[in-house]
Amino acid sequence: MQKVEVFQETSSDSLSLRVYEIGKKIGPTVYIQSSLHGAELQGTAVIHELILRLKSIEVSGTIRLAPAANPRSINQLSGPFTQGRFSPVTGDNWNRIFWDLANPAQKNNGGLDLKSFVSNHLNSDFLCIQKAYKNLIKEILKNKLCSEYGVSESKALAYTLQGLAADADYVLDLHTGSKAVRYLYVPIHCRESAKAFFMPCNLLVPLEFGNAFDEASFMPWVHLTNTFKEAGRNIPLQFESYTVELGSEETISLHDAKVDAERILNWLGSKGIIKYETPYSFPTPMACHLKDYKSYFAPSGGLMDFCVEPGDTINKGQILGNLLKLDKIGTDSAIVPIQSNAYGILVSRASSSNCHSGSEVFLVMENPEPL
Amino acid sequence: MQKVEVFQETSSDSLSLRVYEIGKKIGPTVYIQSSLHGAELQGTAVIHELILRLKSIEVSGTIRLAPAANPRSINQLSGPFTQGRFSPVTGDNWNRIFWDLANPAQKNNGGLDLKSFVSNHLNSDFLCIQKAYKNLIKEILKNKLCSEYGVSESKALAYTLQGLAADADYVLDLHTGSKAVRYLYVPIHCRESAKAFFMPCNLLVPLEFGNAFDEASFMPWVHLTNTFKEAGRNIPLQFESYTVELGSEETISLHDAKVDAERILNWLGSKGIIKYETPYSFPTPMACHLKDYKSYFAPSGGLMDFCVEPGDTINKGQILGNLLKLDKIGTDSAIVPIQSNAYGILVSRASSSNCHSGSEVFLVMENPEPL
Amino acid sequence: MQKVEVFQETSSDSLSLRVYEIGKKIGPTVYIQSSLHGAELQGTAVIHELILRLKSIEVSGTIRLAPAANPRSINQLSGPFTQGRFSPVTGDNWNRIFWDLANPAQKNNGGLDLKSFVSNHLNSDFLCIQKAYKNLIKEILKNKLCSEYGVSESKALAYTLQGLAADADYVLDLHTGSKAVRYLYVPIHCRESAKAFFMPCNLLVPLEFGNAFDEASFMPWVHLTNTFKEAGRNIPLQFESYTVELGSEETISLHDAKVDAERILNWLGSKGIIKYETPYSFPTPMACHLKDYKSYFAPSGGLMDFCVEPGDTINKGQILGNLLKLDKIGTDSAIVPIQSNAYGILVSRASSSNCHSGSEVFLVMENPEPL
Amino acid sequence: MQKVEVFQETSSDSLSLRVYEIGKKIGPTVYIQSSLHGAELQGTAVIHELILRLKSIEVSGTIRLAPAANPRSINQLSGPFTQGRFSPVTGDNWNRIFWDLANPAQKNNGGLDLKSFVSNHLNSDFLCIQKAYKNLIKEILKNKLCSEYGVSESKALAYTLQGLAADADYVLDLHTGSKAVRYLYVPIHCRESAKAFFMPCNLLVPLEFGNAFDEASFMPWVHLTNTFKEAGRNIPLQFESYTVELGSEETISLHDAKVDAERILNWLGSKGIIKYETPYSFPTPMACHLKDYKSYFAPSGGLMDFCVEPGDTINKGQILGNLLKLDKIGTDSAIVPIQSNAYGILVSRASSSNCHSGSEVFLVMENPEPL
């Protein structure tokens, strides 16, 4: 276990990551982190379980694990819950702080000079390209941490975590939803690979950058593939990264962690990093494209009585919840039903019944199909 | 429905209470409020249900209901939850802001001159004393709202709510626990009366002041009884007030609200305010004295896997939860069991698995006995 | 004065904007809003002053003013200050919520179909194009507020404010810095016009979108100009929008508001919207390009003793502040000086001495030149 | 320097106090702590200065110093400021968490058995009583930290800090106001001693318990004196504790820290703990009784333009501030003047112009007289 200092408190105490490495240096590298959002705890229990399990399994490659990847956030209690989604200082969503370092527009901002790299490696073999590219990414991130102007708290975390994943071939970022089913963000080129997780719900995402960790992990390889293509050479897009949503926030279950570990071990097995096939049987994974993943927002303030649970199939017109309007208390018009606009699967609902107008209350996979 | 302005925002918008009154002016007065702590929502659903039910029941007296009794707090969303236990400005716990107005030490602070009152009413009949005393309380609270120095936000709420309850004979303050069973705070002289609520757990509290609303409601009558006694006359302590804990915070269930309303209607029936006896059957209520209501605090930081649920009977030595310590991830010593110190009933547990050292994690009724 | 409801609270109370309109319907439209960030108060005092002043000045056009443009945020007190920079629910920075509605990529998201618009108006006269374009923008924003899925709190505010500015030719968004001098964000094509504000510091920004209100205001006109150009016609970029930074957060000064109003009235005069020239004399405005506007971040945790004040000229190597490190208390090495990397002007410094590693502490205009 | 662990984070990282001790073990003990409220920073700079100064001064006794006495709180940044007055988890005001351990009512709660102590030491000499009593206090606090139910976060801090002061004869708790002058809370029996601080404002407080650290420090000695008196023996009340308010929150000045250190060194000199007399000259200290220390609260929401500064003498009827009401913007009735009710000295004003109805805006010493 290695400690990596990320933050320093006013009191001069430091907050560090603990990073664990399993396996041998030959073969692919898998990077798994959890609790980037400090209220999303289950992944940390799952990493504990994975390390225990991997003690008796041979690993062909390296598995690097960073539980509690954001000590600032997991330590940030507020009332009975965790202030975990965004920095209490800047409001930065901890999973929108990452850097598209190989984007040509970032070249003057300390980013990667992709054109030079490609022209230098136009005829290199692919393994050599991979290795050189990983080293370049690592170096660029290290440089950003040494600015003479200092580095903001968010960026210090971003560069550190991207650095830990710099040499990875596979990245798993373990999160949770609000009150949610297990689900997975699947980059569109990983649709086939994703089946090995047996996640009940799967969101197919385009290869675009939206500042999240999974995207910041795959984008350098997308840019690389594209730039080689422009230069006339086709190289494969072999990199995979997933955001893995392990149920509901603010809670852990060691029992469920065993099941969650099965999914991940099975996927590691499917990739040949370990020899493993889960004995568990899981229902058919369902999927939809990100554009069909719809949020419902409360039409007015009030208190929501939820009528459906995560994982439920919902029909068009079905009542998802009844909103109790406080200016109509004691009358029949106090109850405003929230109806479904389309057939789908409820992936997640709000953690609290307490709604402002515009509070996000339901997240639904429309047009679901088998993964 | 009457609107009572309590707060004015920076934007000049006002935040008001809605107060409903049912019944006729003859007979006793019941005051019921909910959601003083803004995250404790179920009572507001219960008041909605009560008003609907009372439309077809004759009321011998007055039932005054104030749902969402603290609009500042219920509107205060923070992340996916409600910042509801204390003022975000001052930290004042919204149920520790109230005033022991008849305490002799408060006389120079605008409080009630109890000695004068008693000597003036030494030979009055009890009904006349009650009426005069209620009027005096109301007047004193009204005066406090008109200070030439202004009134703090917390005190403005305190005086307003105490004013709404000033003429009451019975007070119900509807709250919830964290993840909790239904339970009741029962002033010791109300032990017999409390049975009609059929609450599974009951905490017997001494007649002392700790700044809470139930206490601020009964203390003037305790002081009155004591002062009359010192003056040589025994008058009855006929006042009752309860803090009613309706399950878990951050959630409403309209279905459960029907059951909760049954409890309250049955109690109103037992008091003769309505003619009603619940057709529901409930298990035997259990009780303990407040000194036997014990909190467990996390011995270190970590993530708690809860092993017992509210309402469970627990034995001495039983594991209540397993704390996953993040500096021991992947080792057997990562799991620290939290064991029960004594036989009891779990009333409530923390809402989140996320623990600092010293986080309150379990609340247990020790030495339970039938109510 | 018109009230525009934006938010509805849990309690069913609504939070509304107050919008004031001065002038006649002929001529250009100016839209001025303040306190989008709820802690940035001075602009609201300035709008008060402007309305008073404009009572005795003839306006050739329309001046629409929205003080306290974000009632959610200005009402959000937290401790002794305002939780004003971002939504306490989502973390959304209130000035990064806006929509680049004419960006071609937004067409499938309800955005403007710019290609159709341009081909329909290829030969229209410019005034007619302006009018039709403003109407189209207004309509698109109105549609977005009527989604069958509801609208998130942030988006509801964004669409409402962009709607209020939809028909504007000039937009001023009044903000403040932390502890800051008066300064201005100047879109590069407005460099000449900006001189009439006489702001001591001016940041020249490229015509790009970064989700802020000033950018969301000018981008439709930038897209329009570009698309016409692609279609072979040159139309002028006549639209102007500025973010106006009026000193320090958390404070108002009615006295300073008179001076701030002079700057704005003088600029309105320079545009011909009013007949006015300020009698005040101001020092020479200085400017730099946005790329030369540099942030310093604390290199470690500690307490900062600030050695320079906003507006100060600073030399390379000058000590900007001394950071007291709490693990070195009582020793000479407790004081870590923070030195300037280059010659410049201090625009702003942190509001608090309390620093984590990575706290933003100084904002400096490097390579300053006369505007 | 000794590190004392107080808190453990979820991440298993600990937050510790640093405690410094200067002097020899013979003679009286002085305990000085700072930044119990995490936003009140100047005291920590002053302790840094004191330690530097005391390196060249001989100390007759022990001076124990705990800068940053509440690492949880000083590290708790929120937006651009410190969430410093109360626990973000429980709302507990960090200076209202302390324990009146010698109060007879606390005997069954693990408190001190004062009657036994007094009867055991009825004829002991005073030095022996002092020593035995200090040891008993220390032991009782140590026991409370070892409860089998765990200890809440607030109580863990309270018992630790009270333990550090358990053997002290003098206690200084360094705080700051909002925007404030230097001022001192003076227990009534220390009025004469307090003069040596030369603080411009002094609040004379009765010997009563209100849960603050200065009170929790002196109350055991008050109880001891009283109980001896009841047992027929007069012992002196030789203990002194002060809350020292060093200007405004959220800021440090190393320059001002030198002046603040002079005040404290001069007082230490007056007590004979060091040989020192300040060469500085200070204006005459003024004082009032706590009952004459008055708070003004905003009569409505709005933005306050402050018209007086801390330290200003104010006359009855003088305008302290003008409140800009946002529903009256652009009209003459928008400005509501806040007038003084009496002659006095402004000790402190709110840190922000942003007011809800009931926000505390001015703190005034009425009936001021020379200390």
Task: Give a verbal description of the structure.
The structure is a homotetramer of 371-residue chains. Chain A contains 8 helices and 21 strands. In chain A, helix 1 (42-54) crosses helix 8 and helix 4 packs antiparallel against helix 5 (153-164). The radius of gyration of chain A is 22 Å and the shape is globular. The first copy, chain A, folds into 2 domains: 2-283, Zn peptidases (Aminopeptidase, 3-Layer(aba) Sandwich); 290-370, OB fold (Dihydrolipoamide Acetyltransferase, E2P). In chain A, the strands form 4 sheets. In chain A, strands 1-2-4-3-7-11-9-10-12-21 form a 10-stranded mixed beta sheet, sandwiched between helices. In chain A, strands 8, 13, 15, 18 and 20 form a 5-stranded antiparallel beta sheet that branches. A 4-stranded antiparallel beta sheet of chain A has the order 17-16-14-19, with no helix packed on it. Chain A has helices at residues 42-54, 71-74, 114-120, 126-144, 153-164, 191-194, 213-230, 254-270; strands spanning 2-8, 14-23, 29-34, 62-66, 77-78, 81-82, 170-177, 179-180, 182-187, 201-205, 240-248, 286-289, 293-297, 302-306, 313-314, 319-324, 335-339, 344-349, 354-355, 360-366, 369-370. In chain A, helix 6 (191-194) links the parallel strand 9 and strand 10. By secondary structure, chain A is of the alpha+beta class. The longest helix of chain A is centred in the middle third of the chain and has 19 residues, at 126-144. Chains in contact: A-B, A-C, A-D, B-C, B-D, C-D.
